[in-house]
Amino acid sequence: MTTECCDLCGLPLKYGAVTAQISGKTLRFCCYGCRQVYIMIMESTDAADPAQFRETEIYQRCVAAGIIPGSLEDLEDRRGKEKRAPAAEKALDEDEPSAGSGDYLPLNLHVEGMWCPACAWVIEETLNKSKGIKAANCLFSMDRVKLDYDPVVTSPKRIMERVKKLGYQAMPPGDESSRKRSRKAFIRFGVSAFLTMNVMMLSFALYSGFFTDLPKAAIANISWPIVIMASIVFVYGGAPIHRKAIAGLRAAAPGMEALITIGAASAFFYSFYNWLQGSIHLYFDTASMLITLVLIGKAVESWTRDRVQAQLGSFFALQPKKARIISGSFPEGRYAAASALSEGDMFRVMADEVIAADGRIIEGAARVDESSLTGEARPVDKTAGDRVSSGTRVLSGDLKIRATAVGRDSMVGQLTAIMENALAGKTGLEDVTDRVLRFFVPGIILLALATGAVCLGFGLGVRESWIRAITVMVISCPCALGVAIPLARVAGISLAGRAGILVHEFSAFDRIDQINAVIFDKTGTLTKGVWELLEIDTPEGHSEASVLELAAGLEAYSTHYIGEAIVGAAREKGVTPAAANGAAETENGISGDISGRRVMIGAARFLADHIPDADIINKSRDFESGRAVSEVYMSVDGRIAAVFRFGDTLRASSAALVQALKNKNIAVSLISGDGGPATRRVARELGITDAHGGMRPEEKAEFVNSMKNKGFQVAMVGDGVNDLPALASADLGIAVHSGRQIGREASAITLMGNEPRQILYFYALAGNVTRTIRQNLIFSFIYNIVSIPIAMSGLLNPLVAVTAMMLSSLSVTGNTLRLSTRAAKHREKQQAEETKGEAVPAASFAGAGK
């Protein structure tokens, strides 16, 4: 018997060990429960050894719950259970009580078979009521379900099985088994369509009995094949419809499938009863056609939705599955799963490969296509020392990269998380339609029953009353109403993403239409934010080299543009930065101690007590047009030591953007933390009359609020570095991506292309998206309001009604596809022109915008 023991409970490792790498050590546990509890204790207490916790309440509760075996007998019983269950499960039975670990893991699954938002609601409600699951969110528009699950209580396999019981197929994204299901669905449709056509032909022969007498033998000979073929269509062809209908009724959330199942079942069993009586009043053709038409409509609708979702699906697929990781054994790199890549690892990327993680180039040079993230068509040259982002493609060259962010922390990981949140969010209008949908189907069923009862009351007969009730039931279209907003959401967010615009909140599409004032931060938005040190002015007693030595030593701790420019200038001039202590960076400057001297660098207000009214402040010369010049001051032991003058180039598109906004009657303002003269100089070149400099972050927010108090709907455009309060205060925050971590900006959208002119494209896109949503909703409401009374009047039969219902649903998806196709064509044209160095106005795709 082994003498090795579990690192948590101390029991012998009689049946093998479950290992875990924790704090650089390999630990061995007798079971998964012990490993999970060990991790929980270490995370919650930062302890070095869990042995001291064996007498604590948490440890005893875990033993009592069976998570930790209390003895060898408990361990043997646990091993017996594990043999009876799949090894991958390692979880308690769902029917047994469990305290759970409280440590939830995220799970993202692709769901097939959802036909309308009611399907998503059924899945979401069922999972949220399941043990070990919290925060389930089913996205109908993306065919995905996101949730957090407790691995001690349940597992991904069990969750997928639970979804399967509802009549849907859940699988990890990219699972190849979806192709098999697609083939099965196509075969189901083909068999149903073939048999339905034969049912229809034989039914026409049977209907001739209304005009001439048919002998009983002839009726029997014609009816038998009809019954057999209609039964196959009803049972086999309608199986997915019936499963979803039953699941929806059980969850008290019936959808379109319930209406179709009730209608088809009524026609089928009514006909079956008449057939047993020897009657020719058979409506097997109606039951078969109802199911076949739904399968046809859903196949076309699925194709249309796939077209709309294709662009977004390709975005989610930006992260490669493999990476060529460099190690001591494989200095040229060896392919491994991308998930094995860790921060600090070296990996290699060659031509036509996608970069698997954010990082910095250590060796090599390449041309990189960043259009997947920024929307810009022009490739970018990269060389050693440059940063690269995951999801971008190497067109030519060979790079060795050190990973700085991987997985969910990488650029693609952050983009995916933000985009998923935007897809999951709902607008107020969508909440209203969701509430309507929950009562829509039960209301239609009651209305159909009432129609049949009223018709019977007026003496129309059982057959006519039954036909009218069925027609009312199948002509209503909850799907058209349900997909009006979600599908347009997918189209809008995916089209914005292709243009390099990351949408954090879908409501931005609505809010931008209300904006009548835009406030720009200067640096990094209307200017490029690439600072160049133009000159250094020093008073007597200080040399340029000495102040640059001090400044570079202090700014080495800064991540601001100024710091990068000063450190770069020192490197170019061969100046070695001095060693600094206690560096502290604020929004307007940085300070620290160097060789016992107090050094401060920043804006005039930051050093207000250390800058006398000296000639040195006013010695700057005039620089060329298109150059934004800013002054930064440095003091040593409370006395002015230098004035650094930096040049920041205006973006080529800034003047055109400002003029375009003015043409829309939008007020434009410019604010900056730089001094007033520098800010006003930039404003004059851009044609902006309202300019304010020397503003702290909180003062920028106050300026935004003052504009709102004047009655303006304000959009704030900043680079997200010092503009967080202002972005959060605005009615619409627009962040210009500065190359730093995204998601921290308090913005509704982020311009990933680092180009504020993308605002004009978003204006045009938002106008088209909101217009498409309104068209879809208006058509859906009008269709149901008009079609249902017509069905009640008896002017339609069930076959015409179900055809109209499917056409209604297809019209909504088709209208959204039209938006996606038109915008995609415009984007392709714009990228082609940008590659040639020309510009295509965003308004050319607006149908002219607004």
Structure description:
This protein is α+β, with helices and mostly antiparallel strands. It has 25 helices and 27 strands. The strands form five sheets. Strands 7, 8, 9, 10, 11, 12, 13 and 14 form an eight-stranded antiparallel β-sheet that branches. A seven-stranded mixed β-sheet has the order 15-27-26-25-16-23-24, with helices on both faces. It has a six-stranded antiparallel β-sheet with strand order 17-22-21-20-19-18, with helices on both faces. The longest helix has 38 residues, at 798-835. The model is unreliable at 43-48, 81-99, 613-618 and 837-850 (pLDDT under 50).
Topology:
Layout: E1 18-22, E2 25-29, H1 32-45, H2 57-64, H3 72-84, E3 105-112, H4 117-128, E4 133-139, E5 144-149, H5 156-165, E6 169-171, H6 177-207, H7 216-237, H8 239-250, H9 256-276, H10 284-316, E7 322-326, E8 334-337, E9 346-350, E10 353-354, E11 358-369, H11 371-374, E12 380-382, E13 387-388, E14 393-405, H12 411-424, H13 428-457, H14 462-475, H15 478-498, E15 501-503, H16 508-511, E16 517-521, H17 522-526, E17 527-537, H18 544-555, H19 561-572, E18 581-586, E19 589-594, E20 597-602, E21 627-636, E22 639-650, H20 654-663, E23 667-671, H21 676-686, E24 690-692, H22 697-709, E25 714-718, H23 724-729, E26 732-736, E27 749-751, H24 758-793, H25 798-835
Parallel strand pairs: 16-23, 16-25, 23-24, 25-26, 26-27
Antiparallel strand pairs: 1-2, 3-5, 3-6, 4-5, 7-8, 7-9, 9-14, 10-14, 11-12, 11-13, 11-14, 15-27, 17-22, 18-19, 19-20, 20-21, 21-22
